[in-house]
Design a protein that fits this description.
Residues 138-232, 261-302 form a coiled coil. The protein has helices spanning 33-40, 73-87, 98-107, 120-307, 321-326, 381-396, 413-417, 429-445, 472-475, 505-526, 567-570, 574-598, 610-614, 616-619, 638-652; strands at residues 46-50, 58-62, 310-316, 336-338, 343-347, 366-370, 373-375, 400-407, 449-461, 464-467, 482-484, 492-494, 500-501, 534-545, 551-560, 623-631. The chain is α/β, with parallel strands linked by helices. A hairpin with a 4-residue loop joins strand 4 (336-338) and strand 5. The structure holds adenosine-5'-triphosphate.
């Protein structure tokens, strides 16, 4: 495309020419004053600028009055006119401009000489000749400009249309975008809904599938059940038919049974009569049994009476380990001869063990002692109890029974009475008696006897009574005195002393353990030894016979006496001396009481000691007593042994009368 002609600042387009607003939004009036002033000063500024938006069309023009880029078509027309005019501008100095000169130089007819200065006419002709092609050229240019203008106008119009289209397109694009967005949103919503619907359907399908499989299973089991029922029905049908035939047989048998029944009824009536006869016989036998029991009791009592109401058993304990060592490692007892099961002899002579008979022969200075029974060191607890078990029976029959162990300290009294705790073989007379009593109580139950058992356990130390079944806290500030229950019954009791009901054998063991603990506490607190006190275990047995209406009340006293050392032998002093004196006094009084009873004295000195006072009812005429005299086999104890044996002999010689049964009133 040809370049647009430039405008000369000096050849401005007519001011009347109407100019459109510039492309960049600035109209002619928007030309800065600075530029206007510059233009007014006649100074022209050449600006060469690409005509943007005009299809790459470039124009070069003066900005004397027009500063806007991309002038409109009117403006273009004016500028073209100016350009035509400018092109023909002459240098007023009489010389053509450099461009025009060359052009003119080109137009001056070659071969003609240069007109002289004065030939103005000629020169004017030359110039007109030169201008003529210019005018033609100018017309062409004008035509071209007009074409350009038309084209520009068309382009402008097209542009306007395009802008309008663009706006419309943008609007519709935006509307479309919005609609698309809406559609997308709707689509997403729809997708979500469909998705949740799909999940719901899937869940429903799953549960339906599960239900279906369940139902299938049910159907299967029902099918199986139906099959089983059908089988059952078939079986039942078979059974019914069988039963029907059986029924027919049964009916036939029933008829025969009925006749048999009549026969049997007759037999039963006969048997009933026989049973009545048997019952009568049983009652007769029961009566005889009761009478037999009474006879047994009487005979039992008579046997004991024949044995004597106070009996004495002597028990010699074995040498203990330490004593064996001191006895030249021998368990041979040198100072005691066992003659038979009733007799022994004790002395300082030499025992001859080499006699032909095998029996130890009597040496010099031996004294013989005879008792109801003599137990050698080898005698077991069970063997000893065998001999006293009848006394336990007497307590159940309603007698007062007293079993006591007498002997010096360490002679085996406690071993005999209590034995070794928790060792069945070595348990002593108290636990064995209790066991025997409860066993007999059970047997007597079948004969109509029911018993109530109460236990007390006390200790007499220095003539003071202490309750071994009461804790120190319970016993605090309590005094224990021996009193008569009432004058009629003559029953002795100790004030504040605990009486604990005993339902079984086990309870008695608990009480024995409790008593042992109390003794241990007392021993620690008061620096005393158990051997320095008398301990008395009492069992009250009240029986009633629901068949015969009989009743009885027995009392069993099991006494472990304090050591019987003589004052001289004990060499005690101070508090121990007082203890020993008290013990000796009470033991001597026990002997005196027994003597007085034996001699049937009018006054029995029961009240001279707490022990005899307490045992008054069990040492009197209507009681049965047994004394163990416990003997130590140690040579060094020989004197005490002899003293004990002498005391026991005195007791053994007493006849304390005929025991009488205590009938409960
Ligand atoms: N028959 C026996 N068999 C075996 N050991 C016995 C026998 N008798 C007593 N003993 C033992 O001899 C020792 C003294 O016995 P025990 O304590 O019974 O004498 P005690 O006369 O009660 O003395 P204390 O008056 O001091 O209470 C104990 O170790 C005991 O186990």
């Amino acid at each position: 495309m040809p370049k647009l002609p430039t405008y000369s600042s000096r050849l401005q387009p007519p001011s009347a020419v109407k100019r459109p607003p510039s492309d960049n939004g600035m109209d002619e009036g928007a030309v800065s004053p600075e530029k206007k002033s510059k233009t007014a000063g006649g100074r022209a500024t050449q600006i060469s600028k690409p005509a943007a938006g005009r299809g790459g069309l470039k124009r070069s023009f003066s900005v004397a009055n027009v500063s806007a880029v991309g002038a409109q078509k009117d403006h273009s027309k004016n500028t073209l006119a100016s350009s035509k005019f400018r092109s023909s501008t002459l240098n007023l100095t009489g010389r053509p401009s450099s461009v025009s000169s060359s052009v003119l130089a080109n137009r001056v007819p070659t071969g003609k000489s240069k007109r002289p200065g004065w030939d103005l006419k000629g020169r004017l002709q030359d110039m007109e000749a030169l201008l003529k092609p210019r005018e033609v050229e100018q017309k062409e240019w004008m035509k071209k400009f007009e074409e350009y203008d038309t084209r520009i106008e068309a382009l402008e119009t097209e542009k306007t249309h395009l802008s309008h289209d663009l706006v419309q397109t943008t609007t519709s694009y935006e509307a479309n975008q919005e609609e698309i967005e809406n559609l997308r949103r709707n689509l997403r919503k729809e997708q979500d809904e469909r998705c949740s619907e799909k999940n719901n359907y899937e869940n429903t399908i799953q549960s339906l599938t599960f239900s279906k499989s369940n139902l299938e299973r049910q159907v299967n089991s029902l099918d199986a059940e139906i099959a089983a029922r059908q089988e059952e029905v078939a079986g039942l049908k078979f059974t019914v038919s069988e039963l029907s035939s059986t029924q027919a047989g049964m009916e036939a048998r029933l008829k025969s049974t009925e006749s048999l029944l009549v026969e049997r009824n007759q037999q039963i009536t006969e048997m009933m009569a026989q049973i009545e006869e048997q019952k009568r016989k049983i009652e007769e036998l029961n009566e005889k049994l009761q009478q037999g029991e009474m006879v047994r009791r009487k005979l039992h009592n008579t046997v004991l009476e024949l044995k004597g109401n106070i009996r004495v058993f002597c028990r010699v304990r074995p040498l203990l380990n330490e004593e064996i060592q001191n006895n030249a490692n021998s368990d041979v007892i040198h100072r005691i001869n066992f003659i038979d099961e009733h007799t022994l002899e004790v002395g300082k002579g030499v025992v001859n063990t080499s006699s032909m008979s095998g029996l130890k022969s009597r040496g010099n200075n031996f004294t013989e002692f005879a008792y109801d029974r003599v137990f050698q060191p080898t005698a077991t607890q069970a063997e000893v109890f065998e001999e006293i078990s009848q006394l336990a029976q007497s307590a159940l029959d309603g007698y007062n029974v007293c079993i006591f162990a007498y002997g010096q300290t360490g002679s085996g009294k406690t071993f005999t009475m209590e034995g070794v705790p928790n060792d069945e073989e070595l348990e002593g007379m108290i636990p064995r008696t209790v066991k025997h009593i409860f066993k007999n109580m059970e047997e007597l139950e079948s004969k109509g006897w029911a018993y109530k058992v109460e236990a007390s356990f006390l200790e007499i130390y220095n003539e003071t009574i202490r309750d071994l079944l009461a804790s120190p806290k319970e016993a605090k500030n309590l005094t224990y005195e021996i009193k008569f229950q009432d004058n009629k019954k003559n029953e002795i009791y100790v004030t504040n002393l605990k009486r604990i009901p005993v339902e079984n054998e086990g309870k008695v063991h608990t009480l024995l353990n409790m008593a042992q603990q109390q003794r241990a506490v007392a021993a620690t607190n008061m620096n005393e030894q158990s051997s320095r006190s008398h301990s008395v275990f009492q069992l009250r047995l009240s029986g009633e016979n629901s068949k015969t209406g009989d009743s009885c009340e027995g009392m069993l006293n099991l006494v472990d006496l304090a050591g019987s050392e003589r004052l001289k032998e004990s060499k005690s002093e101070g508090a121990r001396l007082v203890e020993t004196q008290n013990i000796n006094r009470s033991l001597a009084n026990l002997g005196n009481v027994i003597m007085a009873i034996g001699q049937k004295q009018s006054h029995i000195p029961y009240r001279n000691s707490k022990l005899t006072h307490l045992l008054q009812n069990s040492l009197g005429g209507n009681s049965k007593a047994l004394m163990f005299v416990n003997i130590s086999p140690v040579e060094a104890c020989l004197n005490e042994t002899q003293n004990s044996l002498r005391f026991a002999t005195r007791v053994n010689q007493c006849h304390i009368g005929v025991a009488s049964k205590q009938i409960k009133k």
